[in-house]
Amino acid sequence: MGRKIQRLPQTNIRLPIPLRQKLEREAAKNGRTLNAEIVYRLSQPFVEADARRAGREGAMEVATEAASAAAAAVVEKVLWRIEGAYKGAPASIERVEFSKEEKPK
Q1: Radius of gyration in angstroms for the set of CA atoms belonging to the chain, rounded to a whole number
Q2: Which residues, other chains included, contact 95 with Cβ-Cβ below 8 Å and sequence gap of 6+?
Q3: CA 27, CA 34: separation in Å to the nearest integer?
Q4: What is the pLDDT of residues 57-97, one digit of tens each?
């Protein structure tokens, strides 16, 4: 039986066109989707504040690790959706497996 994918709630927002264009350019430059770029940018102040509250040095390093974990979770969901789309496809299409070190938590 396949793994159940948890659907995240959707939030619609209105963005001024110039802001959306900037976000799209940055997303492309960073290799992210527009959604992933927005989530990353919204989460950064919280991650950095948490790192400061914890008394850790290198808040940017902590933020980068958190962003990497979030990106890995997005990649895993995409892979599961692709797997669902290709169910019954030729055997030559294989699902990419994460190693234990790479697997998102």
Answers
A1: 17
A2: 79, 82, 83
A3: 6
A4: 566 676 777 777 777 777 777 777 766 666 655 545 455 55
In a domain, 22, yes or no: yes
- Please report whether residue 85 resides in a domain: no
Mean pLDDT of the chain: 75
Give the range of the structural domain holding residue 21, as residue numbers without chain letter: 17-67
Rounded-to-integer distance, Cα 25 and Cα 41, Å: 14
How confident is the model at residue 41, as a pLDDT? 92
What average pLDDT score do residues 28-57 get?
A: 84
Q: Considering its fold, how many domains does the chain have in total?
A: 1
Instruction: Please spell the DSSP secondary structure of 13-81, one letter per residue.
Output: ----HHHHHHHHHHHHHHT--HHHHHHHHHHHHHHHHHHHHTT-S-HHHHHHHHHHHHHHHHHHHHHHH
- Is residue 93 included in any domain, yes or no? no
Length reported for the chain: 105
The amino acid occupying position 6 is: Q
